[in-house]
């Protein structure tokens, strides 16, 4: 029983990390029809920004208490700024040229890890997380890492914010309308470009937060971390339904649990194969994914 509890909560924690990455990816694709292959780079920027700040380089930031909160805020802000710059400098000029758009984001996705590696080296750096989040707590006989609960709480908060943004805010409605008929919205005097930049900023913030908290999960940061997580984020987006944030949430839970249980009860490493099999089986039954719509 204790093993099942531990695997379930660690699987939910891993799924929460996948969702933080996949939610922004799904949001950007669903609202803007942009397949952003540089999304993993935004996660890396958030991870390294948090690591840099928590290591004592940012005044007031640190690895404990409020200092760590400040470090996470700094890393998230760095990833958000990177997302805005990416949209303004790379994506915006290529909205009508999807092929070049994909090539450009792939290039950025390769360049950022190389830049991080050139500055701080290719080796993994220990992540200076708070001592309070490095321990465990007892639940039904299992000793569960505390940081898994932090990831789950962060994922739930991001899901709630995205739901409110899409359904209850003026900006969310403007972006929806701009996707359907950009000329009409522009004729009404609304600058759709600013709304699209906001969507990119929100997506980048979610990815950067995933990078910031991913350091707690893995215990380290490295230049290729964003790229490896991006692969599973794409799996989550496809399983959930292209453009569906709610579907991405359900798919991330399924992927995290399947991966954890498969790795434990079979040979280590077969969890990745199990996820691919799950994806193939789902697409055979439901080609559009779990929902297949923006929700």
From TrEMBL:
It is a multi-pass membrane protein. The chain crosses the membrane at residues 6-27, 34-54, 66-90, 102-122, 149-166, 195-218, 230-257, 264-285. It is found in: Cell membrane. Its main location: membrane. It comes from the Bacteria. Keywords: Amino-acid transport, Cell membrane, Membrane, Transmembrane, Transmembrane helix, Transport. The keyword Transmembrane helix applies. Belongs to the binding-protein-dependent transport system permease family. LivHM subfamily. This is Branched-chain amino acid ABC transporter permease.
């Amino acid at each position: 029983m204790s093993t099942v509890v531990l695997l379930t909560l660690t699987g939910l924690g891993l799924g929460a990390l996948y969702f933080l990455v996949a939610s922004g990816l799904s949001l950007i694709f669903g609202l803007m029809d942009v397949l952003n292959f540089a999304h993993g780079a935004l996660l890396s920027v958030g991870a390294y920004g948090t690591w840099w700040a928590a290591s004592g380089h940012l005044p007031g930031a640190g690895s404990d208490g409020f200092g760590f909160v400040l470090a996470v805020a700094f890393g998230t802000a760095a990833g958000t700024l990177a997302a805005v710059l990416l949209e303004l400098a790379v994506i915006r000029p290529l909205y009508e040229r999807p092929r070049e758009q994909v090539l450009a984001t792939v290039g950025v996705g390769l360049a950022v890890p190389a830049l991080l590696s050139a500055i701080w080296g290719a080796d993994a750096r220990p992540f200076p997380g708070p001592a309070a989040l490095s321990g465990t707590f007892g639940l039904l006989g299992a000793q569960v890492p505390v940081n898994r609960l932090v990831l789950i709480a962060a994922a739930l908060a991001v899901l709630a914010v995205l739901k409110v943004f899409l359904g209850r805010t003026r900006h969310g409605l403007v972006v929806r309308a701009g996707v359907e008929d950009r000329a009409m919205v522009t004729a009404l005097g609304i600058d759709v470009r600013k709304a699209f930049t906001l969507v990119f900023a929100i997506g980048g913030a979610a990815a950067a937060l995933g990078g910031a908290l991913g350091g707690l999960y893995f215990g380290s940061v490295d230049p290729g971390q964003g790229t490896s997580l991006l692969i599973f984020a794409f799996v989550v987006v496809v399983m959930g339904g292209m453009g569906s944030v709610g579907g991405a949430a359900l798919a991330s839970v399924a992927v995290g649990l399947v991966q954890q249980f498969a790795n434990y009860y079979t040979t280590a490493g077969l969890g990745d194969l199990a996820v691919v099999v799950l994806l193939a089986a789902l697409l055979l039954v439901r080609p559009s994914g779990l929902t297949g719509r923006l929700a």
